[in-house]
Amino acid sequence: MTDTRPNTSDYRRLFLEDIPLVDVRAPIEFSKGAFPQSINSPLMNDEERAKVGTCYKRKGHDAALELGHQLVCGDIRDERTQAWIEFTQQNPSGYIYCFRGGERSHLVQSWLREEGVDYPLITGGYKALRTWLIDYLEETIDQSRFVILGGKTGTGKTRLLTRFPDHIDLEGIANHRGSSFGRRVGGQPTQIDFENNLSINFLKLRDKGTSTFLLEDESKLIGRCCLPPTLKAKMEKAPILLLEETLETRVQITFEEYIEQNLKDNQALHGEEKGFEIFSEELLASMDRIRKRLGGARHQEYRSIMEEALKQQLAGQGSTRHRDWIFALLNDYYDPMYEYQLEQKQGRIIARGDQDQLAQEFLRTGALAQL
Predict the structure, then answer these.
(1) Which residues pair with 247 in a beta bridge?
(2) Which listed residue (55, 73, 98, 226) is catalytic?
(3) In angstroms, rounded to a whole number, what is the distance separating the alpha carbons of residues 139 and 196?
(4) What's the whole-number mean pLDDT along residues 131-155?
(5) Could you tell me which residues come within 8 angstroms of residue 108 by beta carbon, excluding any fewer than 6 positions away?
(6) How large a percentage of the chain has pLDDT more than 70?
(7) For residue 1, what pLDDT is reported?
(8) Within 13 Å and on the Cβ side, how many CA atoms surround 230?
(9) 218 and 227 in contact (C-beta within 8 Å)?
């Protein structure tokens, strides 16, 4: 395979076009943060990297390099080289990167050339890509306008949000619904991955000409993912579209998302029996996480209803009992808390209504930018 493409520092194009990337760092490095279009095919595994690192500290660069070649040789080198060759064949437009675009990626590149494969790498590696995304994210926050979609728990804010073309789904990027019950199957990304994906989402919308973005009202933390402080500060001053729905509608939406969808997702991943077990454990754990805020008596009351609902559901007697604790939790816990918070935001509310009313008024090109 001959590839005459040069090494690249066009980071913007890499993310805009979702160019495939092969990350040759060790798995432990990859797990801390990478990019959505990258796969991990390491030059050294974690154990090998640790040995080379220790050698470098004790004996210096040359000794560490020699040890690295001793550890990755013979069948191990052949196996890893074959994996890189297969990646280049499947992704002829891709690139190689390591941490700084240094010895590891150049070594992989040279081994590929020995096999007749000329494949380019990313100048500056992971560190340069990461720095570019963070700088771009801060530039975007500074130069953009934001409109906030607010509303009580269960109003279906995310459902309305995703109907707008110029939106950023913070909860989707964080893989978390934002509340104490908000954990989703698959877990959350690392903070680094969250920030990387957020920046890429902004990049793709801005490239289409978007300068005003609709965001869902969020606290500083979405699960364990933390919003950039500059973004949170700007969101706190932005105009608000307030989504309002009846309590009955909100109970139904909450039931669909937190009971039906969560159970479906768990069973799709773990199987019917194990999926229900994990779903049940997580639901009870979510209730326990707000025990102190509920108070002991109220927590026990709601938990008992939830336990009864889960037993009926497991026995094939339906899942409607869940609506009882959902109603109580929304009406007696979440609503008073949100109403208090809303008092501090009254001057920023520019429109209110249900899903259809807000969609009809604002769901058109350029509507948000006029606010």
Answers:
(1) none
(2) 98
(3) 14
(4) 97
(5) 24, 43, 84, 96, 98, 121
(6) 99
(7) 47
(8) 13
(9) yes
